[in-house]
Design goal:
Elements: H1 26-36, E1 46-50, H2 56-63, E2 68-73, H3 76-88, E3 94-98, H4 101-107, E4 112-117, H5 129-134, E5 139-149, E6 161-167, E7 170-175
Length: 176
């Protein structure tokens, strides 16, 4: 796993083979961040990475200058790996929460400019995530929600849907 661009550009982290999480491929990550650049000024943004997995998206957000990133990951081993990566780059502006995403969203009091969610593609309630994020108290006005999902999900009829991108088997739906 590597950081594509920004202040930590080129840094690599070896994800343990035992991990269940599938990090977003470098190809997909680079391309979706190129798209996001037209919607988001990352510098000074508050970002939320849900289902953080290996921390790949959190690290990319930090590298691109986000003022603060909150990473939520339920699996303790994955959270520990993310913490090690954050320590390697001396990041002090990431808050790592080892816990359930849905519990976090219920108790969250912060507004984020960017919310990125990369849930397991087989998550039963993946179709509920856009409404949960967009109608809750999570996304700032004019904020952007990015949902990574499998090819079997289609969110184009959602009233706040703005764009879909596909990179191989990786799909992203963007909402505002």
């Amino acid at each position: 796993m590597r950081i594509i661009t920004g202040i930590y550009k080129g840094r690599r982290f070896d994800v343990p083979r035992s991990f269940k999480a599938r990090p977003t491929t470098d190809f997909a990550k680079e391309n979706i961040f190129n798209v996001l650049n037209k919607y988001v000024d990352f510098e000074d943004s508050m970002a939320l990475d849900l289902f953080a997995g290996t921390g790949s998206i959190s690290l990319e957000l930090l590298s691109r200058g986000c003022r603060e990133v909150v990473s939520v990951e339920k699996d303790r081993d994955h959270a520990h790996f993310i913490l090690q990566c954050l320590e390697k780059i001396n990041a002090t502006n990431d808050t790592l929460i080892c816990g359930d995403v849905f519990r976090f969203l219920k108790s969250n009091k912060k507004l984020f400019n960017v919310v990125f969610a990369d849930p397991p593609y087989t998550l039963n309630n993946i179709v509920d995530l856009p409404d949960l994020i967009l109608t809750g108290k999570t996304l700032a006005p004019d904020g952007l929600f990015v949902l990574e999902h499998g090819k079997h999900n289609n969110f184009e009829t959602h009233p706040m849907f703005i764009e879909h991108r596909s990179y191989g088997s990786v799909n992203f739906s963007l909402f505002r």
